[in-house]
Amino acid sequence: MGFIDIRDLLKRFGKVVAVDRINLAIEKGEIVTLLGPSGCGKTTTLRCIAGLERPDEGDVVIDGRPMFSQGFVPPSKRGIGMVFQNYAVWPHMRVFDNVAYGLKIARLPKKEIRKRVLETLKLVGLEGLESRYPTQLSGGQQQRVALARALTRNPKVLLLDEPLSNLDAKLREKMRFEIQGLVKRMGITAVYVTHDQAEAMVISDRVAVMNRGRIVQVGSPEEIYHRPATKFVADFIGVTNFISGVVAEWDDDRAEAILETDFGRVRCSVVDPEAVAPGRGATAFVRPEDVEVVEGTEPPENTFDGTVVHRVYLGNILYLFVKLGDTLLRVQGRAVMPHREGDAIRVHLDPHRTLIVRE
């Protein structure tokens, strides 16, 4: 059992199953991200944790207390703070009053309210701005106001629903690190919702990838990126190449298979043994950074001849799009690579990084 325990959670909207009997245990002080495309059920799951939605079946247990099965616990009694996508700050209130609102509702003494608000504003980098109105703040500052309001009541759990999606790219990147550092320093248990895989990788201790109302994989950012359980996860997390073929050989002891493709026989590692059998179609994936450009006359196994059909320069890195048979492979290399469109090229696929995954 975790500090937050989601048990067989089911939520329908009419005939649509938004959350399909998911289970997830979140430890105290852990940051877990619900990651997935729009409509996969991640925000509905978050709203059930918050008490803003009631599940049709299942329960959410926070710090050992069931939120639904033994009587509905209202959001105000759950010990949570929540940060929304659209900030939800009141434009007619100054920063101080926005942050103090929940404390005033709780009827704390004025002296205590002032102390807590000023401490929290300092914590989120808004010291000295307590007299401004939200319209006098940047988008990033408004998001900090929303974060301060959620933190000022010392919540046991912090819920964040796409909190950075309305910010520009540079500010969004900066705020990722700020939120992660702040939550860790305070030791709060946090559930973060996003469709942005880079955001999830930076912020999370663990990532729960969702699709069609279900959790399809839970793991650290490294596990999710390097050992995805399914083709969907491999495709959703980062940039990847897919290689289709038929399994020609299968070595159970070494968890390796030979995939017969349109450009040759590719030795691959296997994530899930149930995904392979001789004669069965299969899909392997390899990240662009794991494809090596090979020079010399004695290439290693898993080396193939191809043609550069496109070249994309991004400053610090270079992408070469290489045609191998009917397969187009993206190769990530150094910006100084001399290859041009139409050049012959030889690439090596690392067998330990070329993985067959479930469909």
Keywords summarizing the entry:
globular, alpha+beta, 8 helices, 36% strand, 359 residues, six-stranded mixed β-sheet
Molecular structure report:
The structure is a single chain. By secondary structure, this protein is of the alpha+beta class. The longest helix has 18 residues. The radius of gyration is 25 Å and the shape is globular.
Q: Please tell me how large the radius of gyration is.
A: 25 Å
Count of extended strands: 20
**What amount of the residues lies in strands?**
35-45%
- Runs in which pLDDT lies below 50 for 5 or more consecutive residues are none
The pLDDT mean sits at: 93
What is the string of SSEs from the N terminus onward?
A: EEEHEEEHHHEHEHEEHHEEEEEEEEEE
Distance between the termini: 31 Å
Strand order of the largest sheet: 6-7-8-3-9-10
Name the shape in a single word.
globular
What structural category do the secondary elements indicate? alpha+beta
**Residue share in helices?**
10-25%
SSE layout and pairings?
Layout: E1 4-13, E2 16-26, E3 31-35, H1 42-50, E4 57-62, E5 65-66, E6 80-83, H2 95-105, H3 110-123, H4 139-151, E7 157-161, H5 169-186, E8 189-194, H6 197-203, E9 206-211, E10 214-219, H7 221-226, H8 231-236, E11 241-251, E12 256-261, E13 264-270, E14 281-286, E15 291-293, E16 303-313, E17 317-324, E18 327-334, E19 344-349, E20 355-357
Parallel strand pairs: 3-8, 3-9, 6-7, 7-8, 13-20
Antiparallel strand pairs: 1-2, 1-4, 4-5, 9-10, 11-12, 11-14, 12-13, 14-20, 15-19, 16-17, 16-19, 17-18
Would you kindly provide a brief summary of this structure?
The chain is α+β, with helices and mostly antiparallel strands and 359 residues long. It is built from 8 helices and 20 strands.
